[in-house]
Design a protein that fits this description.
- The structure is a homodimer of 370-residue chains.
- With 370 residues, chain A is of the alpha/beta class.
- Chain A has two domains: 2-42, no CATH class; 69-367, Rossmann fold, CATH 3.40.50.1820.
- Chain A is built from twelve helices and ten strands.
- A six-stranded mixed beta sheet of chain A has the order 3-4-6-5-7-8, sandwiched between helices. Chain A has a two-stranded parallel ribbon with strand order 9-10.
- In chain A, helix 11 links the parallel strand 9 (303-308) and strand 10.
- In chain A, helix 5 runs parallel beside helix 6, helix 6 (160-169) crosses helix 12 (351-367) and helix 7 packs across helix 8.
- At the A-B interface, helix 1, helix 2, strand 1, strand 2 and helix 9 of A face helix 1, helix 2, strand 1, strand 2 and helix 9 of B.
Chain lengths: 370, 370
């Protein structure tokens, strides 16, 4: 019985040790807490950084209640469910598109924007006209490229951001409903965006035009400029790539630091990375048409960028900003407290949404001819 | 014996459960991995964010080898050792100052900057003159306020940033050696900075002057503008508060998200927070002279801000940027890939250091009278 007790004692001790092994009994090295001591030891040598598990509160100072609600939100529930077949992708895409499109009529009414479906350069597109066009904007036109990881938000589902911009900026907007995977991988989306751009500048002065979009839309804005430069097509007077997916691979610091922190994209390793591969369709992920960060940005139009401190694409955004600056391009970076990916477009009522779109509209106003 | 076995079995089961409770055997809910499934469950409800422990690689794309070295560096070894007495603070302060000051002669020689110690408005100060003053800069003067958490970098130890700016920007610079805790808490530092500013503008045109500094220096630049506005003293034509400690309390998203990620400051809970309390000396931490984010920023001069994606003060920086924008102030935000706190001033040889100081110098050149 005594030896059995000793044996059980050992088992219990080992299990307890296994549970508490990463903890130290008392702060060591004069550190103020056990965690600090443990972290100090784990990061005492040069190399990778070891970060402990944490619980992040919702920032509340100078963050509107609407944005606090977005920050506090649960993870996007399908972040880690990866469709395995074309059919599974389509089911997910259609399900999300239906929900997003259902919200459009109310948004249209709320923001007093009329929407006309049309075809431009052979591509399905929407013309958005706000009730009030800004006095400087009568001869101006914006082109919008929606986001959604190159797979989501077809048709009217992609129009929310365009409605916000038309209304808050007082601009007429053309939104491009480009083709997407699984049926249409690269270059279909870029071919469509380019076809609309080329058609629009036949009857509109590109010096009075800007192109904008968020996430995948932001990357496509940048890729469009690369392609227009290469094809010697006229460039817009300004661009607004919001939190652009400029490096489609998992390359960039905040893919790591903001993994599991961003509640919109959550991680590259879920549906997002699979969508990247689906879109690239075997093409090199460092091709500047796929990851526009790798292209030469000299000669780009003035560029306004928007992101958040929890954005998985914060590095995509700041790398783009620095690369533009290094190329001598006027570029304006805006980062919102606590926001995850693209949350500046997700609340129609947040003051920060109006602030972001007003900033973009003013930037365009500054650089677009009248 | 049987009941004893059952009892032990229960204990072992409970211990094993305690160890493995957060894990799941197989990916659940169609998630791509066990971690994703676990994270999905932990973040399925609105509220705080649960983030697992991680290992962060050193970002390598478009980050210079010098900055990669800074990012890979171990934690600042004394981040969590909190001096308990005035004497302990002085020992740490003097030890660090000695090391920092020892590096100044070589830096001075390398960057060809002459340094003259003097007194201005009764305050110890240094006049830095580069070998080459920019052609637009002959009648211009910059005032520098060093960083160091309101406790570190007295005397020559605070001059590294001023040397970089004088040399890379081609400006004459006056650096303020303000009084600090433990002997001199608030308002001594601000009194000194203000005394130097008032004295300098007796013989220099403030429209041809800018004020800059990093971290605590950045906060003091902002507080100086608040105070000059209140005292109706002339303002400089531009300011460059780099990653300013604009909220001295642990308020702001990246105090949380970048805790244990930033290898320079590491956490607010170590020496940093104690230095804050030492400086404030019982004053409300939301007093705009202590935490300048809480002051009215209307009428501020054009402002250039610099930070990094791993900076504990990224939120301090972006909150300042947005608050300035909301007040209608021209403000330019720059965020460097992978950098922790103030690392853009820590490598004399990194291309990013030259880039940051060149950007600040150009910003000043744009707004300062000749």
């Amino acid at each position: 019985m005594k030896s059995f007790h000793r044996w059980i004692g050992l088992v219990v001790t080992l299990l307890v040790s296994a549970c508490t092994a990463p903890m130290v009994g008392q702060p060591a090295n004069g550190m103020y807490s056990e965690l600090a001591a443990k972290q100090g030891v784990a990061n005492a040598q040069a190399g990778v950084r070891q970060v402990p598990a944490k619980t992040l509160p919702v920032p509340s100072v100078e963050v509107s209640s609407q944005v606090q609600g977005l920050i506090a939100g649960p993870y996007n529930p399908f972040f880690g469910s990866i469709p395995q077949t074309s059919g599974e992708w389509k089911t997910l895409i259609n399900q999300r598109a239906k929900a997003a499109a259902a919200a459009i009529p109310a948004m249209k009414a709320k923001f007093n924007v009329s929407i006309e479906q049309t075809r431009i350069g052979g591509v399905n597109a929407y013309i958005l006209t706000p009730a009030t066009i800004g006095p400087n904007n009568r001869n101006r036109l914006l082109m919008h490229i929606h986001g959604g990881g190159y797979v989501f938000s077809p048709g009217e589902a992609g129009l929310a951001e365009a409605i916000l911009m038309a209304s808050m900026g007082g601009y007429k907007v053309v939104s491009v409903d480009y083709r997407m995977p699984p049926d249409h991988p690269y270059p279909a989306a870029m071919d469509d965006a380019m076809a609309v751009w080329k058609e629009l500048i036949k009857t509109n002065d590109p010096r009075k035009m800007a192109v904008f979009g968020t996430s995948t839309g932001g990357a496509m804005v940048l890729a469009l400029i690369h392609r227009a430069k290469a094809e010697k097509v006229a460039l817009p007077a300004a661009i607004g790539p919001g939190t652009p997916w400029s490096d489609i691979a998992r390359i960039g610091d905040t893919y790591e630091t903001n993994e599991w922190v961003d509640n919109v994209l959550v991680t590259w390793d879920g549906w997002l990375g699979k969508a990247a591969l689906l879109y690239a369709n075997g093409r090199d992920l460092k091709d500047p048409q796929i990851s526009p960060i790798y292209g030469d940005m000299s000669g780009f139009p003035p560029t306004i960028l928007t992101s958040g401190t929890r954005d998985l694409f914060l590095s995509n955004t700041v790398r783009t900003h620095r690369k533009l600056r290094r190329a001598g391009v006027v570029s304006d970076l805006n980062v919102y407290e606590g926001m995850s990916h693209a949350q500046y477009i997700y609340s129609a009522d947040a003051p920060e949404t109006r602030e972001a779109f007003t900033d973009i509209a003013r930037f365009f106003d500054h650089f677009l001819g009248k």
